[in-house]
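Sequence and structure are kept together here, with a separate record for every protein. A complete record is shown below as an example:
=====
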Amino acid sequence: MPRTVDITKLEPVIVPKERFDGERKLRLKMSRDFPFYARNLLKVLSKGGGIAPFELNRAQLHIHEALEKQNKRIGRVRALVCKARQMGCSTYVAGRFYHRVSHRKGVNAFVLSHAQDTTKKLFKITRLMYDESDGEFKPSTTAASTNELSFGNLKSTYYVGTAGTKGVGRGGTVHYFHGSEVGFWLNADEHFGGIMQSIPTGTLSEGTEVILASTGNGPHRKLYELFQDAIEGKGEYQFIFTPWHWSDEYRQAPPIGWGQQESPHEALIYQQTEKALEVYGSVLDKEQKYWLELKRTELGSDWLCRQEYPGIPDEAFQQSGTESFFDAELVDEARMPKPEIQDIFEEARVGALDPAGSTMKGDRTGIGHRVGRRMENIEYHRGLKAPKLVDMVKKYIQKWDLDRLFVDVGGLGGPIYDFLRDSGYRNVVRPCNGANSAVDMNPDGSRKYANKRAECYGRCKTWMEDGPVEIPNNDEFRTDMLCTKYTRDKGYLQMESKKEMKARGVKSPDGTDVLVYTFTEKVRPSRLREYRESVKVETVYDELGFGLV
């Protein structure tokens, strides 16, 4: 017969208070300190082979600290992560969300990737973390498939999906959302809109997390649009960037004698990267330079290497060199110093102004000038209202002693041109309307350009191809130069309109418009300089009709 035990007569088991307190403190630390939890409980595949503890690298720690600060500040996470390839962002988010759903009741984590193969790989990361976790801290599951982990006792779920699948992400409540490779999503607006409706808002949004991450894919798509909003302080998304040189893996010992003689192009590449390092706190050593050279050779393109392994955010969002009107290699060549270009005093100092337009999100006011084969300066100004904008332009004309300033008179530009003309700059400013007819024709007399804007772009490209030319070594300007597409479908050059650029999430190329509009018409300095001596400068705003400020 089975033995029966009277439990009322058993001696109670006494757990030492020290052990109880120690276990309670350990569990508390596990639940609150993710890096500690990951290091001690989570396992990941090592790039060198085998399975290893999940020790956060520099990029992952940077992302973690940024997210924790935001969560503490606003009570939720809304983040955009732009990264170089293989920095460990997806692994970090997988671990973070697994930690969340395995420690909290009634919450759901959802991961949406751009491709089915990537979706499977992302889920395998989380599944390995679960399979290899310590039994004492391992929640039981009621469902475990190829795309879902459901923790029955907690009533929490971790699941994945692929962008492009109809209806994916709709229905149910999502507390933690990871958008992987958002820059490559098909139908990004539709997916993003549907998923965001599943995330609690208002007072119920506390503790929720939305992390959108991607490598760059040109200055378009949803990620770039959100990036523009973030850098301008619009909305609640914070922008997080992890440059390639933060990875300890991206280095290679060079052969003896390598790097003793750098080509001018290589020198510029390293100069640009080191300029980025000033912002992100590192020093580019010889092994990193050699790795970068090998990677450029492997990819066969400098612009592609920059996009896949950016050192600064603008490199991630640059336009493909095969799609943009200005070739990326041509632009980078023009950024190199050209000591052989001598200052010629007989050359006109020709500037252009592209005022910010009210209809373009993230639009800036661009102003700059060119002297012969050198563009001497480019400036961007944000948030200038008409009075201060006019004052800025006057000071620019005087500082750089311009012979001519072409003003894009579309939108806000018309009134700005009128104010400048009527306040003493009649002989300096000229209107430029990109919609006007072009005057240049093909040798056979046929139409060469769709309009004046296309004509100015064409003249500028000819100027660059004839070389040598020099343009400012400015990353924001480089991005502008590589974001405009073009067609010749009708037999003549037609530039992509700003409306079309806006539709694919690309900001107005203000810097490029400044340079190309310096080619509006030829300018002879000798005829203008004698006029400029009689220019009377007026800066009192009420005389311009603005009212005193």
